[in-house]
Design a protein that fits this description.
The chain is α/β, with parallel strands linked by helices and about 400 residues long. The chain has 2 domains: about 100 residues, Rossmann fold (3-Layer(aba) Sandwich), CATH 3.40.50.10380; about 230 residues, NAD(P)-binding Rossmann-like Domain (Rossmann fold, 3-Layer(aba) Sandwich), CATH 3.40.50.720. Helices cover about 40% and strands about 10% of the residues. The chain is built from 17 helices and 10 strands. The strands form 2 sheets. A 6-stranded mixed sheet has the order 7-6-5-8-9-10. Strands 2-1-3-4 form a 4-stranded parallel sheet. Helix 8 crosses helix 16. It is globular.
Amino acid sequence: MVASEHMPDLENPRAHDPVFALHAGGKMEIASRVALNGPEELSLAYTPGVARVCEAIAAEPALADDYTWVSNTVAIVTDGTAVLGLGDIGAKAAMPVMEGKAVLFKQFGGVDAVPICLDTTDVDEIVETVARLAPSFGGVNLEDISAPRCFEIEDRLKQALDIPVFHDDQHGTAVVVLAALENALRLTDRLMETTRVVVSGAGAAGVAVSRILLAAGITDVSVIDRAGVLASSRGPLNDSKKALAEVTADLTGRTGTLADVMAGADVFIGVSGGTVPEEIVATMASDAIVFGLANPHPEVHPDVAHRHARIVATGRSDFPNQINNVLAFPGIFRGTFDARATAITEGMKLAAADALASIVADVATEELIIPSPFDPRVGPMVAEAVAAAARRDGVARR
């Protein structure tokens, strides 16, 4: 029986859902950049003309950057183990997110991107597969790979490849957090070197956020996982947590629970999920800064945070000050490709954060510490800053 226009389609409950309607057939396609209107154009785009380009690249491999799409194309690689807030949903179910990422790359950075969802969670297999695919791309964006495996995968690919490798869940998040924090500190008359920060979460985002804050000049960072403050004295830690403990709690001497380090803290950055009780938030310093970035449920709900903090940010689009990775990764790769950089350095990430912060620095308010992704200045300014930093850091090839 066929449903009438007055009856719901019980056999296809998604038929009238606008989300599924937008995703029908996928969100992207391949489009040709050249005309093929006759034999002459066909002979240039394909055989016999294409053979001349192939021979030139075989003799001089660097020409692939000029005569193929490689220099403007990134592989978005996932194994589907840490997708959004959904967790380990597998490679096939991760594809809608990877397609979305590709669309954002193109829209906000003019970068072509190809989603690659790998049906394996084995570190060796992922590294080997990506390394074999690398000649087809100018860069690799790792996405939604669970910690701590993501750290080893990124490190090994960086060592194996001569193209940029960037784990957005780590470094994209870190760049946007630092940009927002720079403006929040200005508004509250704080200095990096005297600001106390608590980071809740020691996964991919927590580790990267903590490290970029240290690189930017903050010296007092306490990182919390489920067992409390990361400290070497606490007991066995995995490699990433141990290395982070050595440059945070081991230097400051701070240990204990979340409640212990939140008392008097200037800044809270949540990248872990869970909930921070209001009575703990209330112990923070005056004019506190609270970034509750878990989605869809922030660690501290904005309504609660505003009762005790001067500046509040979330990962959600329905509150001011959304910490959104789309502010970072398109411009970072655009600048990386413009400079033909062989890597994405710490200096390039810091430059991206500074550029983002500068866009709204002169007009910043408690509800505007980071620009909108739709601000047309974002992509170009981040790209320009990243390319300049690549040249300063000696990784640019032009």
